């Protein structure tokens, strides 16, 4: 007899178990605590026939003193004639102790997952909760017996003057050119055993550069956000651009655009003294779309040399 009495109790415990898939429907009733009464004013719109004068606008031009930070030299080749020229069979590029940038695209090794916990759900379970909240106020508007006029102008006038003032500082990188001798001749041979080795700074290896951030390509740059000068040229690849920065004094960062071949060297300075400080060289903006997101490696390639670079998201291209 006791065993038959325990059966309904065990069945009741089964229905009392937590149900993870139960659907909860919450109904909230809000009751205002008070009623507020406001006076309303009738607005009359007038359309003037004359133009509204907006005053005088002054356009200022600031004349700043310019300080040259340093001079970068570009080299051109001159011909030293010889009868036979030997061209290397192969060229090998060496990067010593190159390290992968932490922001470079690629799978993360720290990802993990965990098993979801919970009981097996029953179907068709719905819990309805109704709550009542006393909050806010109702609004009542009554005529105030007054009239306000809004002047709807369709034409405007404004005078413009131009003025100049002195102040501020600007920084620049000077350029110079030089020539180096190069062998040239009438006959070219290619020995199969001759190999040329090009050694570049390890910070200029492709794996050490940042060509994507948060999985998107870097679309555009803000040069020396605090203060400084930018040197611009064109190179064949990102490593050649980076090597120019590595060989220049206090070059904080380099950036190379795969779309145009443009190369930028960034030289930040202290805003008060104008001394180069190897600080923040540039701010790069990655393009996350959402309409047209940029693929990794489709924009700028950034190398951090004696300074650093920061990255942020560009404005969404869907108008938000």
Automatic annotation (TrEMBL):
Q: Which domain of life is it from?
A: Eukaryota
Q: What is this protein called?
A: Apple domain-containing protein
Question: Which species?
Answer: Zasmidium cellare
Q: Where is the signal peptide?
A: 1-16
Alphabetically sorted, this entry's keywords are: Signal
């Amino acid at each position: 007899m006791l065993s038959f009495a325990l059966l309904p109790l065990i069945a009741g415990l089964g229905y009392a178990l937590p149900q993870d898939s139960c659907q909860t429907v919450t109904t909230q009733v809000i009751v205002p605590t008070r009623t507020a009464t406001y006076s309303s004013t009738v607005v009359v719109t007038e359309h003037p026939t004359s133009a509204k004068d907006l005053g005088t606008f002054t356009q200022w031009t600031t004349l700043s003193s310019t300080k040259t930070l340093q001079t970068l030299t570009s080299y051109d080749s001159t011909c030293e004639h010889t009868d036979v020229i030997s061209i290397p069979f192969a060229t090998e590029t060496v990067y010593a102790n190159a390290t992968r940038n932490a922001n470079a695209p690629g799978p993360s090794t720290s990802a993990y997952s965990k098993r979801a916990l919970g009981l097996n759900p029953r179907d068709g379970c719905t819990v309805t909760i109704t709550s009542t909240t006393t909050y806010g106020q109702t609004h009542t508007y009554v005529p105030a017996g007054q009239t306000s006029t809004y002047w709807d102008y369709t034409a405007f006038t404004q005078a413009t003057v131009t003025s100049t003032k002195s102040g501020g500082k600007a920084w620049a990188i000077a350029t110079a050119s030089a020539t180096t001798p190069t062998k040239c001749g009438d006959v070219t041979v290619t020995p199969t055993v001759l190999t040329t080795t090009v050694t570049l700074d390890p910070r200029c290896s492709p794996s050490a550069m940042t060509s994507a951030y948060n999985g998107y390509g870097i679309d555009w740059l803000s040069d020396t956000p605090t203060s400084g000068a930018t040197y611009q040229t064109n190179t064949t690849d990102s490593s050649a651009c980076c090597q120019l920065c590595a060989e220049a004094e206090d070059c904080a960062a380099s950036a190379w655009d795969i779309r145009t071949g443009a190369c930028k060297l960034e030289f930040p300075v202290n805003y008060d003294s104008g001394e180069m400080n190897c600080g923040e060289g540039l701010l790069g903006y990655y393009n996350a779309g959402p309409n047209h997101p940029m693929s990794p490696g489709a924009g700028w390639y950034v190398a951090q040399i004696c300074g650093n670079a920061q990255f942020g998201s560009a404005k969404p291209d869907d108008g938000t």
